[in-house]
Design brief:
By secondary structure, the protein is mainly α. The protein has one domain. The protein is about 45% helix and about 5% strand. The chain contains 18 helices and 5 strands. The longest helix is centred in the first third of the chain and has 21 residues. The N terminus is likely disordered.
């Protein structure tokens, strides 16, 4: 907390020694499993079987990361009403690009390529790559992608389960190296982000304040066991009733009893915005207008509009700054500061205002 902010910023993305995208001998167990699933095992033998793949393997390992950002194609946007939104979009893109140039300091990614693109959804017809950030409108974005793919006539009649468990959409890590490389360099890449504190509180409310057959037994039980002294047997058995303060203790614990989850993982670790340069940066705070402008840019059918309904728990008030303050008031100043430190990079990258701590 006493660390000099300038020094902290200069080392944000350069805290580890950069490594190649691929190495032939030094995969972690998880990376090896991913590579085996896609290319087979042993890795090098199978790479040599496929014509051209060996060259691509070398090309990826020698790629000059990050790739320069491309200008948006605005030829399909004819209505002057988008002028203000376009100006905002250009500022966001420029801000993120300048931030990455100033503080990035890496020539190659520190994570395995297949992991880096594992949150990116592909829509080939309109040549879109969308990086999923949970609690930032991702459910409705998946509905839009399904409509663009011709899988549904309207975004309004696709259920939550069909969106999240139907496996109708392709992810970028399902393609081979050539397919990934081609799409990263030619498709329009979009990411939609949200104020980190609002996103965190929204995730807590969704997963722990409503019945949930996964988050209560998997996360709730572990959190209550470690962070609630004298918990009763029923609480330990069902994992329901996690308090926000207990959830924060779990989040900030370097020895968490259960791992991280995409709903509260940092956006910088979900979408790698300083290594994959996104052509469009939308924000949850201006979700509808940003999304509808993006649909214009990619030439979506004019009748297709971004849905504005709440995907689940529709009777609950949306998580906003006022709701966040109610949750933060139960934390100490130190805890609030540590949450900000945890999401420090997301605040800086996407130019979010420092919260009142």
């Amino acid at each position: 907390m006493s660390e000099d902010p300038k020094n902290k910023e200069e080392n944000l993305l350069n805290s580890e020694k950069p490594i190649s995208v691929f190495t032939e001998n030094n995969h972690s167990q998880g990376e090896a499993q991913v590579l085996s699933r896609i290319t087979g095992s042993p890795t090098i033998q199978l790479i040599e079987k496929h014509q051209g793949t060996k060259t691509l393997f070398r090309k990826f390992s020698e790629m000059n990361w990050p790739v320069d950002i491309r200008p948006l194609n605005k030829s399909l946007v004819t209505d002057s009403k988008w002028r203000r939104i376009d100006a905002t979009q250009e500022k966001r893109r420029s801000f993120l690009q300048e931030f990455c140039k100033k503080y990035g300091g890496v020539s190659r990614p520190q994570s395995h390529l297949f992991h880096m693109v594992s949150r990116i959804y592909v829509e080939d017809k309109h040549k879109i790559l969308y990086c999923e950030v949970p609690k930032a409108g991702c459910s409705n974005w998946k509905r839009i992608l399904m409509v663009l793919n011709g899988l549904a006539p309207s975004a309004y009649n696709i259920s939550h389960d069909a969106v999240h468990y139907g496996k109708h959409l392709k992810k970028l890590d399902s393609f081979d190296l050539k397919g990934i490389y081609a799409r990263l360099n030619t498709y329009t890449k979009a990411v939609f982000v949200r104020d980190p504190m609002e996103r965190l509180v929204s995730a807590f409310r969704d997963k722990f304040e409503h019945p949930n057959s996964y988050y209560h037994p998997v996360f709730g039980k572990a959190i209550i066991k470690k962070y609630r002294p004298n918990a009763c047997e029923e609480e330990l058995n069902n994992g329901s009733g996690v308090k926000f303060k207990e959830f924060i203790h779990y989040l900030l614990d370097s020895h968490r009893p259960v791992g991280m989850d995409i709903h509260w993982e940092k956006i910088s670790k979900l979408c790698y915005p300083c290594l994959i340069h996104y052509d469009f940066v939308g924000k949850f705070e201006t979700l509808e207008e940003d999304a509808n402008y993006f649909l214009q840019l990619i030439g979506a059918p004019k009748r297709l509009k971004f849905p504005n309904f709440k995907d689940r728990h529709s009777s609950d008030k949306r998580t906003n700054a006022q709701v966040v303050r109610q949750y933060l008031k139960d934390l100490t100043r130190t805890e609030r500061q540590l949450i900000y430190d945890f999401y420090y990079l997301d605040y800086l990258m996407f130019n979010y205002t420092t919260p009142f701590l």
